[in-house]
Write a structure and sequence with these properties.
- With 201 residues, this protein is mostly beta strands.
- It has a single domain, classed as Pnp Oxidase, Chain A.
- The protein contains four helices and 14 strands.
- Strands 3-2-6-9-10-5-4 form a seven-stranded antiparallel sheet, with helices on one face. A three-stranded antiparallel sheet has the order 1-13-14, with no helix packed on it.
- The radius of gyration is 18 Å and the shape is globular.
């Protein structure tokens, strides 16, 4: 099968996001100018550079009360900071709950029953029990093609790692089974890990 996106695919559901998988989930916490915390998952997320460490996430769609975008991007525009919380399999239901179309000002930490902690380098809350948190300073927001598509880039200014996730001096993902997004309503988690040496090593 071949299709051009502008012509449509003719299938019951869009296959694009099922093709680009698995995708890590950036559980983004931010704070509005009224002091309200927000927490929402984004599966267009990844790390993009080592030195300095940098991450990105993309927001698609908009809420009527957020000037052409969603709560996360609107808050980050105002504050210039955000935190990426890593999602473990055990937190899948809480993560899913925070993806809802809640009203502006709704506190997803409270709604999902999640403990929060204050970040160290930025004025923002983080998911206290997450396997890891990346505190970020906004570097740029890029408006992408299409309606309400925004790419948010940030430099990591602080890193939290849960102690039980560190084994033999390494951050070990097998200790918490990171959750990833597949297509449609499907998810997966990492349970098996293997290593490959690069040529010449």
């Amino acid at each position: 099968m071949f299709y051009r996106p502008e012509d449509g695919h003719g299938l019951p559901h869009n296959p694009f996001n099922a093709i680009v998988t698995p995708r890590p989930i950036g559980w983004i916490s931010s704070r509005g100018d009224d002091g309200t915390d927000n927490l929402a998952p984004y599966s267009f997320f990844n790390a993009v550079a080592y030195v300095p460490p940098q991450v990105m996430f993309a927001s698609t769609g908009a809420k009527a009360d957020r000037d052409g975008t969603k709560d996360s991007v609107s808050n980050i525009r105002q504050s210039g900071v955000f935190c990426v919380n890593i999602v473990e399999y055990a937190m899948r239901d809480a993560m899913n709950l925070t993806s809802g179309p809640w009203e502006r000002g709704e506190d997803e930490f409270t709604k999902a029953g999640l403990a929060r902690a204050e970040c160290e380098t930025i004025a923002c809350s983080r998911v206290a029990e997450a396997p890891a948190n990346l505190e970020c300073r906004l570097t740029q927001i890029v408006e992408l093609e299409g309606a309400s598509n925004f790419l948010v880039l940030g430099e990591v200014t602080g890193v939290h790692m849960r102690e039980d996730c560190i084994r033999d001096g390494q951050f070990d993902v097998s200790t918490f089974n990171p959750l990833s997004r597949l297509g449609y309503r499907d998810y997966a988690y990492v349970s098996d890990v293997f290593s490959l040496k690069r040529p010449g090593e």
